[in-house]
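Predict the 3D structure for this chain.
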Amino acid sequence: MANHQNAKIQKFALNVLSLCKKYESRIRRVVFLSTACCYPKSRQALNYKEDGSVAIKYVKEGDVYPADPESGYGLAKLQGEQLCEKLLDHDVYHIIRLHNLYGPKMTCDNSSQVIAALIRKVLMINKRNGSGVLSVWGCGTQYRDFLFI
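Done. Predicted structure below.
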């Protein structure tokens, strides 16, 4: 299923960007919504100091290369970014790499991200063990940024 979704993302990006190229005299701006999943997993991992605090590693645009996305989804989005670079003038396109999105139309299945996965755990708690215990991974000092859509 995931490979099929990734192929759809690639095809959609190619079709839209090809049309932008075809009608470039009428196109003023293209915003390509990408993902932080483009970055290699090693660049996204948290490093903990001896005192348990997090050693923050900020990522920059260039950290995406050498390309080693964490998933096929990240690869599909990275290829969309590359299509922007190949097909469009540099001053026309803008790439925004989003991460940890949530909102009313998010899915709460087994492939969900952080917010949806936590909501799913809460909803399923009584069905699983009936004890009312919520199990959350980590030590409780983690932090992340979230973007409501």
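The radius of gyration is 19 Å.
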